[in-house]
Amino acid sequence: MFRKNLLKIAFANYVYKLITPVGLKLNMSLLLTFFLIQSSNAFEPLVYMRPNETPMFTELYQRYGLLNPPALHVFDSAIYLGQPGEKGPLVIPSSEVFFNEVDKTLRAYHERIGNQELFLDPKETKPIFCPSNGSLQMIFGLVYAIAMTEPEKQFLFVEKIPFYSFHEHAISYRPYPNARFQGFNSPSEIKLNPGETLVEFVTSPNNPDGTFRQPYTQANIIIADFVFASPSYGSDGTGYIKDNIAWLSKARNEGKHVFAFNSVSKALGKPGYRLGYTWFPMSDAYANSIFHNFFSYIWRLTVGGSTPGTAEALNLVSALLALPDAGQALRTDAFKTIVKRHDLVKTELLKRYPGTEVTSIPGSPTLFAKLHSSDIPKMTGEDILYKDINVAVDNGNTMGATDDFIRINLCGYSGDLAEFLNRLAKSQKYQENELLVSSANHCTHTTIHGRDIPHYVVNPNDCNIDIDARDADVKITLPKFINFQRSNLISIRKIDDSNHVITVQADKLTTTIKNKDEQLQVQWKQPFFLNGQWQTVRP
């Protein structure tokens, strides 16, 4: 109460001084300065650098002409998806056809890029392919299956620090009376209670630091998170595939129960597709015993996969498989991009905050660092970057580290990263076109005949559109490309000399093209995910 009254007195005294003639001029100056500062900050958009988005791949697919791959996989969304292999014959025949198609396509993809053995034990004779709506569902489903199948047993889930936060969350969010989680720096820190069963999470390449990981304990149950085990990540851009297969084969040969899974979120840079998957090793007696609870979690307690999202994922996979190198050039560009970004962010971070320790490696999809600042320990590293430069990053404490650790996404849009670097550097020294490495710059060419297609809707893969309107007027619709920060520069040209008109229409734009060889260039822009709109340029 005393403190409250003291504040009232202080505030009243300040107001009195403010309205006196002597104080008015000074305080008006101070207020004007304050509002100018606030106005300046108000127009500085938040830069979101938390690592659950991968639009760097959108930029690469744009350069490679893969933003709208041929629809080779078409699924009826009116069909309900069930899960094969619960008990006896499959109840829903349509689901069996769906899963077989997804299974076949993904097997071909993993065989082509050389990492199939990570997910499919060559000795496994009865695998059941299990898709889900993402790797999180895989993680939560496996923990549920292990804990609920033997509720009388106690389980300790462990992982080396730093670790992916949702591994811990899968145990603590429920929580389970018979399961707990412990992060460790050294296996000697692990103290099992009497009768407790050890389960180890292994993520390789590791999230958040990109390092190679293998089991560090003698756990007989291993959950292998291989979402980054693709030739875009790791210190050498191989995803440590050979090294991962080596320790995985050893564990399987020793009779350990290994549950490995993948996700297109990281492997293809497409979290919006919502597709995670595993091949459940049913020849393993223990795996067989927990499968019914895994099934229950994926398809009863939560919601399974999406037919449109899965179809789009398979269309992209098929387009990559159709390339002579199965998309390896693109994956190499992705690797070179994150290496370059890691080096630049590290450089500017150390200049802005001397003494900062970067513990992640070039080739990691995220930068992980212990921030050094005079504001620590009063503030977390996450809060310091938000306060200083209005940038959102992750707090490392959810990954087993301390509050001064931060995790920064390196797989975001180049424009966001350029702004982040410029704010760190306090100068406009970086441009977005410097922050993407691409060995391709594919530009599609489409010809529209008004007789056959009087109305054409532009898609993100479009680049050059020629229109023959000799037989009819043509309407071109520019839809909103929501969350695409920048589209191709799209050129629309009339190639006939008729009197028919081409109307180009967007949400807040209508214009016409009337003359032969008349050209209109349009581009969608939505910087920082704000105020998306089409802009026009007449050459």
From TrEMBL:
Domain Alliinase C-terminal: from-to ranges: 100-322
Alphabetical keyword list: Pyridoxal phosphate
Gene3D superfamilies for this protein: Aspartate Aminotransferase, domain 1, Type I PLP-dependent aspartate aminotransferase-like (Major domain)
Molecular-function annotations in GO: carbon-sulfur lyase activity; transaminase activity
Pfam families named among the record's database cross-references: Alliinase_C
Xref: InterPro entries: Alliinase_C, Ethylene_sulfur-biosynth, PyrdxlP-dep_Trfase, PyrdxlP-dep_Trfase_major, PyrdxlP-dep_Trfase_small
Biological process according to GO: amino acid metabolic process
Family designation: Belongs to the alliinase family.
PANTHER family, sorted: BIFUNCTIONAL ASPARTATE AMINOTRANSFERASE AND GLUTAMATE/ASPARTATE-PREPHENATE AMINOTRANSFERASE-RELATED (PTHR43795), TRYPTOPHAN AMINOTRANSFERASE-RELATED PROTEIN 3 (PTHR43795:SF20)
Protein name (record): Allinase
Organism: Legionella beliardensis
Organismal lineage: Bacteria, Pseudomonadati, Pseudomonadota, Gammaproteobacteria, Legionellales
